[in-house]
Amino acid sequence: MEPKGHKLIQRYKKNYSIPQEVEISESMVLSHWELEKKLTLELLKSSPEERWSTFERCYTHLYSNLSWLNQCTEQDSSLKRSEEWKNVIGTPPQLIYEIGSGKGKLISYLAKSGFICKGTEITKERGKKNLATSHINLSWGISDGIHLDTFEPTKQYEAVISDQVIEHLHPDDLDAHLKSVYSILKKGGKYILSTPHQFTGPHDISKVFKHIEPKGMHLKEYTFKNLSDALSQSDFCQIHYAFTPILLKRFLRVIGFAETIKIDTYCLKFFLFEENILSKIPNHLLRRLLSKILKKLNLFSDNICLVAYKI
């Protein structure tokens, strides 16, 4: 049975990190649910030729009608999380391009840390519009999130990043997206991405209503294998996990892998091994439960966080 009333509102606030003091009504949640389902159908049915205009129109409609998503939700608010991104990127200054900057918290943090940054969004309802202040190292642009090399020069950036973006792209556009990221990276540059894991999902508004598959604007939630294979097919090399859990790092060092193999590379292999076993469980709810238990033990991740290099 789908949650209602207070329970529904609490699930919604938790899913979107909305502070308890913010007034959210059941009708607001239901309006969001109905609107997102409607827009999702439009996105999935869009042809390649009309994709950008459809996505821009739908996301502008979403955020202009659900103003509280811009005003109240937090994205990348954790200082620790932003520092993790900074550590994976490396030492500033580097030229960084972010796909889907949302409210701009991560890219602003990186700009203040000394990186030369460009933030982008598919709609003007997000990004620069929602920043109280900007930074001298930060510029802004609009793109379709797919054909980046039509918006930016090739071989331009040391790093391209996307956090909670891949799942919003049309599944048919993933390969074009990865190839265009590869194109705008300099030789030796890296693509760092983070996206929800399919096995612990859904992670969009469908989760609030206890659905077992995404019905909202997460058009596809992926696995480690899905994305590591897609990155390899787009000529990326040296693919590894970006944010290896501390406890797992310690465990790998104890059993001797720190001396023989790069821990982050082995971490990805470890997650792929677990994922392969979990994929053989036919019951979705049981698979999700086991995935979440492993995640709590720091032996799995509900986010796919990968780094891939252009050699």
Protein described:
The chain has 311 residues and is an alpha/beta fold. Among the domains are: 5-71, no CATH class; 143-241 and 303-309, Rossmann fold, CATH 3.40.50.150. The protein has helices at residues 5-15, 26-45, 51-65, 68-71, 79-89, 105-112, 174-184, 224-233, 246-254, 257-260, 263-279, 284-296; strands spanning 95-99, 116-121, 138-142, 157-163, 185-196, 237-241, 303-309. It has a seven-stranded mixed beta sheet, with helices on both faces. β4 (157-163), α7 and β5 form a beta-alpha-beta unit. α2 (26-45) packs antiparallel against α3. The model has no long low-confidence stretch (mean pLDDT 91).
List the helices and strands and how they pair.
Blueprint: H1 5-15, H2 26-45, H3 51-65, H4 68-71, H5 79-89, E1 95-99, H6 105-112, E2 116-121, E3 138-142, E4 157-163, H7 174-184, E5 185-196, H8 224-233, E6 237-241, H9 246-254, H10 257-260, H11 263-279, H12 284-296, E7 303-309
Parallel strand pairs: 1-2, 1-4, 2-3, 4-5
Antiparallel strand pairs: 5-7, 6-7
Number of helices: 12
Derived structural class: alpha/beta
Q: Rg, please?
A: 19 Å
Largest sheet, in brief, is: 7 strands, mixed
CATH level-3 fold name of the domain at 143-241 and 303-309? Rossmann fold
In the CATH hierarchy, what is the class of the domain at 143-241 and 303-309? Alpha Beta
What is the straight-line distance between the termini?
Answer: 51 Å
Poorly predicted regions? none
CATH architecture of the domain at 143-241 and 303-309: 3-Layer(aba) Sandwich
Helix content estimate? 40-55%
The total strand number stands at 7
Give the rounded overall mean pLDDT: 91
Strand content: 15-25%
SSE string: HHHHHEHEEEHEHEHHHHE
- Which strand order spans the largest sheet, edge to edge or round the barrel? 3-2-1-4-5-7-6
The dominant shape is globular
CATH superfamily of the domain at 143-241 and 303-309: Vaccinia Virus protein VP39
Assembly state: single chain
